[in-house]
Amino acid sequence: MTQWFGRAGSGGHERHTLALLSKSTLAATVSWVIANDVMAAQSPAFAPFSAVLIMQVTVYRSLVHALRCVGAVAVGVGLQGVVGLLAGPHLLTFVLVTLAALAIGRWRPLGSQGSQVATAAFFAFSTYVSATSDAQRWSQLGQIIALVLIGCGIGVVVNTLVLPPLRYRSAEYGIHTLAHSLYGLVRDMYPALREGKPERERTRQWRLRAAHLAPIVQQAQSSIHTARESTLYNPRRLRRRHRHRTSFDGYQAVVDALERVSHQVASMTRSFDQWHDADAGRGYADFARAYGDFLASLAPIAELLSQVDEDHLQEQSRQLCEAAEQAQRCRDRLEDEARAGSLALSDPAQPYGILMAEAARLTDEFQYTCQVLKHGVAEAQAVPPAPTAGSEFG
Asked: Model-level pTM?
C-alpha cells in the first residue's frame, strides 16, 4: 500500500485513480449533506449514489452519464407512478412495472445507465407502497428524481472544477504500447531469419504474437478517443499552456497506420509459418536472410515510435524520416536480390510474392507515419510555443 501511494505521488495510473477516489468522496459527501441535512430527505442515499455513479474519466463522459442517469431514473419513477395510479400498490403492479422497466432499460440511448430504470422503479415501488396517501406518494417519487438530479449535478461540477481530467499523454501511451509490441516482434524475427529458414515452432510463435496485436490496437484507438474526449467541456484546455495541444489528428493517423502495419505483420508471419509446407532449397535460405536484413531496418522505426514524446517530436520526426529512408533502401535491395535469384514471385503457391508485397506496404506505412509526424511538427512551429507542464498531462 505504501508503494502504491508512492507511485500515486509520482504520477501515472495510480495518481489518476487517487484523484478519482478523492473527487468521488468529495461529491458523495456534499451530496449527502444537501440531501440529509438540508433537505431532510426520506432516502438521502440516492444523491451520493448518483454522484459517485457518474464520476468518469472525462468531463464529457460524466455529463453524458449524468443525463442518461437522470433520464433513466425519471423513466423508472414515472413508470411506477403511472402504473401505480392505474393498478394500485399490488403485486400485479410490481410485475408490470418490472417488465416494462427491464424492456425500456435495453433502449440503446440509455447506454450503461439502462439498468437504472429498473433500479429506480424498484425503489419507487417500495416508496409507493409505504406511503399513506396519494399526495405523499407523488411527493416522495418526485423527491427521488430531485435527489438523483442533485447528485448527478454535484458529480459533474466536482469533476469539472476539481482537477478536471485531461488525458493528453494517453494518446502517446497508446502509441508507445502498440509500437513497443511491434518492435518486440520484429526484433525477435530478424535475427532468426538471418540464420536461414526458421524452425516451425518459432514461426508459430510469431504468428500467435501477431494475432495478439489486435487488442493492443483497440487499446491504442481507445487511448486516442479518450484523449480527444477529455478536452470537451474541460476548463483546463482554455489555459494558455494547453491551447495548442488539443488536436490529435496526427496521433490518430499514426495509430491508424500502425493498425495497418499490424495487419501486414500478421500476414507476413502467416506466410513464414506456412513456408514449411514449401520445398526447401538454397533460394529459401538466401531470401530469408535478405528478409531478415530488411526487418532489421524496420526495428529502429518501431523503437522510435515506442518513445514518441510531444516535447521532443521535432528531433524524433527527423530520426524517423532517416530510418524510413534507410528501410526503403533495404527494401529496394531485397527486391533486387529476389529478382536476381530468379525466385517465383508471381507463383501464388510460393510465399515470395506475398512477402515482397508486405515489405512494400510496411515501408510505405512507416514513411507515411514519418510524414504525418513531420507535418505535425511543422504546424506546431507555425503557432507561438506554449510553456510545457509535464505534470499536468494525464
From this structure: 0.72
